[in-house]
Amino acid sequence: MAASKKQILKDEPTEFKLLAIASSLSISQMAWNINRACTFSLSHNTELEDILGFPSFTDRQTYAGRVITLIGNKVTGKVLHAKLSNIDFLMEISGNTDEQFIADTLKQLKTINGIQVITQVQPSFLKLKEPYCVE
Asked: In order of start, what are the domains of the chain with their CATH numbers?
């Protein structure tokens, strides 16, 4: 009997970036303002919302190979990421990401009235290895 060969499949991790946003706006207002400022098409993502228990909006259409998701970090006494308890929203950009796109997006987001703070956060800080929303 021939010896069997074991094959190990390695799944390449999906590249993603996180932006942390502090704002007085509701998530619907934030999504609307982001769509206007960045020409995204964020729409309500009930599937992810059911999984996380936090409101979320996703755009899978504007850029090929790139998914943009806005996730509420706080809802009725709960916080998605306690390390960011002062942050209201996370914007996750997954797939084809590059530093210029992130820089341009940050610049556009900073023009939105109602955003007090916006900064990039390393996924490892939140112990995230994969994005919440993939292609």
From this structure: 16-126 (3.30.310)
